[in-house]
């Protein structure tokens, strides 16, 4: 009797434990899903806080390390490398020898290498790949990490680096499941590089070989789609049309078929815009939006049509058409990767139409309206938007629509924010120069000197405008630094045109300095 009772109690106990474990696992999975959604929505601070809470609430749970790793992966996908590495370090600390500890070590190194690639530190990235391969030699997960590093090179058009990285897998991980994908990826990168280089004849030859060698591969439709997208992006519409039609006819049930159909509809509309048949283009655009609403590439397709209108801005009404089309992506379609870029485009068109307040509104949306896309790969439009906010406020002040002091303050705020957020970037020199002039207009000598000296450092004295030397000289003079003032007055005289009215004033001041000394 007691024996039977013990067995029953034990059975009940085991059953209850299984239920508890299932409930705990379910709660952990649900908590992880909530964090994934927060990351995808750009709510990074809340995602970090929830991830930390998961670590506290599920300490000791055997599924915790895997959930944390999946969270780190999602941060990494959005280029939030610091968050990804921090979580990987926590996994390593708590599970150093487990499979997830090993994956976290690889993940941390992979995120670091991607960060170097996006920072254009390519040689350092390659050295880090060498070290990663050495440190994790023989592991299947190493081939996986190297594959996604190669893919990152490919996405920023570093095709030779991508091919070399893919080849590491085929050479050093020949038995890996990723070896076939790497061979496939290297061939794809080769074709893309030829298209970007406008070597279309050789690209066609390599594409024919690619079809012959890989058409039976499961990922072939996806790869062929993105090769064809390169033709589309290069405005080689006949080649793009043929490629997308090939996908829809040969692989109608593939995930790439719907994208190919959307691209074909877009190409037809671009042809109408080129012919300036705007009425038919509008009708076709409305139909495309109806037919493909909800497609994750629709926003990009619509914006591409806006770009075609923008390219014809000398035609009557083309700029207004462009703005209308960009606003469809910005205001009417579901938020996507295309939305902040479309906002930047609306800002550009409104700026050209001298509607500066609307331009500022959309530039601000591009910068701050969509935090889920505010990461390194999309930093270009953020930098441009911040720069243009400064430009538009400056134009509003000069036009007198808003008090000059107010617009100057807002322009300074935009430029300072841009320079504070970004390091070396294409608009840096222009931002330092514009900021220097704004501070000079306020008679803020110290900040004026700071900005103009940064500008001069970037462009060099030979390319530095005479106006910058003049403003620097006056600022140093006003600060009592006669030596620095003299140097810049002399630089101004050498650079100034003979009829520059300021030459007389500067020469008189140089004579005074000489007599004083």
Describe the protein in words.
Helix content is 79%, strand content 0%. By secondary structure, it is mostly helical. Among the domains are: 24-119, Tetratricopeptide repeat domain (Serine Threonine Protein Phosphatase 5, Tetratricopeptide repeat, Alpha Horseshoe), CATH 1.25.40; 123-217; 427-517, Serine Threonine Protein Phosphatase 5, Tetratricopeptide repeat (Alpha Horseshoe). Helix 17 packs parallel to helix 19 and helix 18 packs antiparallel against helix 19 (379-399). Mean pLDDT is 90; it is low at 1-23.
Fraction in helix: over 70%
Overall number of strands: 0
Q: Helical stretch count?
A: 25
CATH superfamily of the domain at 24-119: Tetratricopeptide repeat domain
Shape: globular
In the CATH classification, which architecture of the domain at 24-119 applies? Answer: Alpha Horseshoe
Tell me about the biggest sheet? none
Name the structural class. Answer: mainly alpha
Distance between the termini: 115 Å
Mean pLDDT: 90
Task: From the 3D structure, determine the CATH topology of the domain at 24-119.
Answer: Serine Threonine Protein Phosphatase 5, Tetratricopeptide repeat
Using the coordinates above, name the CATH class of the domain at 24-119.
Answer: Mainly Alpha
Order of helices and strands: HHHHHHHHHHHHHHHHHHHHHHHHH
Q: Approximately what portion of the residues adopt beta-strand conformation?
A: under 5%
Low-confidence stretches: 1-23
Q: For the CA atoms, what is the radius of gyration?
A: 29 Å
């Amino acid at each position: 009797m007691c024996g039977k009772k013990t067995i029953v109690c034990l059975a009940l106990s085991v059953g209850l434990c299984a239920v508890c474990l299932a409930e705990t696992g379910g709660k952990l999975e649900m908590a992880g899903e909530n964090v994934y959604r927060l990351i995808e929505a750009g709510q990074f601070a809340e995602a970090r806080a929830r991830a930390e809470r998961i670590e506290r609430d599920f300490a000791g749970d055997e599924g915790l390390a895997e959930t944390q790793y999946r969270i780190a992966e999602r941060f990494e996908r959005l280029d939030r490398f610091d968050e990804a590495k921090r979580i990987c370090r926590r996994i390593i600390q708590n599970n150093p020898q487990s499979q997830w500890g090993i994956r976290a070590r690889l993940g941390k190194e992979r995120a670091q290498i991607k960060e170097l690639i996006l920072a254009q530190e390519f040689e350092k990235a390659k050295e880090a790949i060498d070290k990663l391969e050495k440190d994790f030699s023989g592991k299947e997960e190493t081939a996986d990490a190297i594959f996604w590093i190669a893919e990152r090179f490919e996405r920023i058009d570093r095709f030779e680096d991508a091919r070399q990285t893919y080849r590491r897998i085929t050479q050093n991980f020949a038995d890996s499941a990723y070896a076939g994908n790497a061979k496939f990826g290297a061939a794809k990168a080769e074709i893309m590089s030829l298209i970007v280089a406008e070597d279309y004849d050789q690209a066609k030859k390599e594409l024919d070989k690619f079809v012959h060698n890989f058409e039976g591969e499961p990922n072939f439709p996806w790869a062929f789609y993105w090769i064809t997208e390169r033709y589309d992006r290069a405005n080689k519409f006949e080649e793009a049309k043929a490629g997308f039609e090939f996908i829809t006819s040969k692989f109608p049930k593939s995930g790439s078929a719907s994208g190919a159909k959307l691209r074909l509809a877009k190409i037809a509309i671009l042809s109408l815009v080129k012919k300036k048949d705007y009425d038919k283009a509008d009708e076709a655009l409305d139909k495309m939006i109806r037919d493909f609403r909800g497609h994750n590439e629709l926003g990009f397709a619509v914006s591409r049509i806006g770009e075609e209108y923008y390219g014809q801005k000398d035609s009557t009404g083309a700029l207004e058409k462009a703005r209308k089309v960009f606003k469809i992506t910005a205001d009417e379609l579901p938020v996507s990767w295309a939305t902040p870029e479309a906002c930047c485009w609306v800002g550009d068109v409104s700026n050209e139409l001298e509607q500066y307040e609307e331009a500022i509104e959309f530039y601000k949306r591009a910068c701050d309206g969509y935090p889920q896309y505010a990461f390194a790969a999309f930093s270009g439009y953020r930098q441009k938007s911040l720069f243009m906010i400064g430009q538009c406020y400056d134009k509003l002040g000069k036009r007198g629509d808003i008090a000059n002091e107010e617009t100057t303050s807002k322009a300074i705020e935009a430029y300072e924010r841009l320079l504070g957020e970004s390091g070396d970037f294409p608009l840096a020199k222009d931002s330092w120069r514009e900021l220097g002039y704004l501070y000079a207009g306020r008679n803020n000598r110290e900040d004026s000197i700071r900005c103009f000296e940064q500008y001069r450092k970037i462009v060099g004295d030979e390319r530095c405008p005479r106006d910058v030397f003049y403003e620097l000289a006056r600022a140093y003079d006003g600060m009592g630094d006669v030596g620095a003032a003299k140097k810049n007055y002399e630089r101004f005289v050498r650079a100034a045109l003979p009829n520059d009215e300021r030459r007389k004033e500067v020469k008189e001041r140089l004579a005074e300095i000489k007599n004083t000394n």
